[in-house]
Amino acid sequence: MRRFAFVPVLAFLGAAVVAVAAHAETAPEFHLLLQNHKFEPATLKVPANTKFKVLVTNRNTTPSEFESTDFNREKIVLPNSTITVFIGPLDKGTYKFYDDFDHATTGVLVVD
After folding, report:
1. 92-109 pLDDT per residue, tens
2. pTM for the whole structure
3. Could you tell me the maximum CA-CA distance found in the chain, to the nearest angstrom?
4. Which tens digit of pLDDT belongs to each residue from 20-68?
């Protein structure tokens, strides 16, 4: 009898996983390129009050660390690889990000 008590719990968890996966796939996607120790584009425009994902590709020969204290993210990007960073929802404004391994490499999210 106890086995059947877990069936509703498993069904709920399965539905939650599908809902999260579906939401992640529908999140707007933006791209940043790290090349010659610069972010391209240096200014990235994104929507306000929306969760979105940024794909960061590092074409440098050294690792980088995509970081922002403004929107609380920190993730290492190995050379010749791409990471996905989920951000938001954010209020309208300007948010700075940088390469923590090379502080001269900076960029800005403009949230509209």
Report:
1. 999 999 999 999 999 999
2. 0.77
3. 63
4. 554 556 899 999 999 999 999 999 999 999 999 999 999 999 999 999 9
Cβ-contact 16, 23 below 8 angstroms: no
**Residue 110 bridge partners (DSSP):** 45, 94
96 found inside a domain:
yes
Q: Report which of 54, 57, 43, 66 is spatially closest to residue 112, judged by C-alpha positions.
A: 43
DSSP labels, 35-86: ETTEEESSEEEE-TT--EEEEEEE-SSS-EEEEETTTTEEEEE-TTEEEEEE
CATH assignment of the domain containing 49: 2.60.40.420
Tell me, rounded to whole angstroms, the distance of Cα 18 from its chain centroid: 20
The domain tally of the chain equals 1
Buried b (16+ CB within 10 A) or exposed e, 42-52: eebebeeeeeb
The terminus-to-terminus CA distance of the chain in angstroms comes to 54
- Which structure tokens are listed for 71? 């929107």
